[in-house]
Amino acid sequence: MQITKQVTLFLGLTALSGAVHAVDLTSIGTMDGREFFVSTDVYNASDASDLAASIGGNLASILSQGEQDWIIDPSRTGDKDRFWIGYTRHVFDGPFSWDDGAAVGYENWYANEPNNSGDERNTVMNWGSTGNHGQWNDWGSENNARALVTVAEPEPGSIASLALGAGLLIRRRRRS
């Protein structure tokens, strides 16, 4: 039995692109000092980034093959649903960089990607068919995918102040 944390905004909702959404993120665990969360709903790239910022995080940076394998483990995200990650091209046809400022090194592009077909400045994970081991594609920001979010793991004892300050209710639930 695995225990996960679900983060739900209470006493307020987050406005994304003029629409109001309740924030629904589920923790998939902690690795290398960062807690990873996945959204239940799908968002365009900008709204996914805003969702991450609303809880003090970023769309995830994936820094190694080991981290990629850990994320796509079937008990966490699997390799079927598409997830926005924080690998962004800020200038048309320019280089990609991590939104959280992490050093660029590891990449896991799907065959013939990135191809910049149109103005594709954002990156989605799990492109192609199931079994692609989480490979990435540059994708237009207007498309919808789930969000893969990271938040720096807080110092022990400070989670209460983080939750209070952000208006978050963190509850543990059991998942079989």
Describe the 3D structure:
The structure is a single chain. The protein is of the alpha+beta class and 176 residues long. The protein is 14% helix and 35% strand. It has helices spanning 45-54, 65-71, 159-166; strands at 2-9, 14-16, 19-21, 24-31, 34-39, 58-59, 83-85, 87-89, 96-98, 122-125, 136-139, 146-152, 168-175. The strands form 3 sheets. Strands 1, 4, 5, 6, 7, 10, 11, 12 and 13 form a 9-stranded mixed β-sheet that branches. A two-stranded antiparallel ribbon has the order 2-3. A hairpin with a 2-residue loop joins strand 2 and strand 3 (19-21). The chain is globular, with a radius of gyration of 16 Å.
**Which band does the percent of strand residues land in?**
35-45%
Which assembly state applies to the chains in this document?
Answer: single chain
Identify the overall geometry: globular
User: How many helix segments?
Assistant: 3
As a percent range, the share of helical residues equals 10-25%
Contiguous uncertain segments of 5+ residues: 1-21, 164-176
Largest sheet: 9 strands, mixed
Decide which structural class fits the backbone.
Answer: alpha+beta
The termini sit apart by: 5 Å
Mean pLDDT across the residues is 80
Radius of gyration: 16 Å
What string, H for helix and E for strand, traces the elements in order? EEEEEHEHEEEEEEHE
Brief write-up:
This protein is α+β, with helices and mostly antiparallel strands and 176 residues long. 14% of the residues lie in helices and 35% in strands.
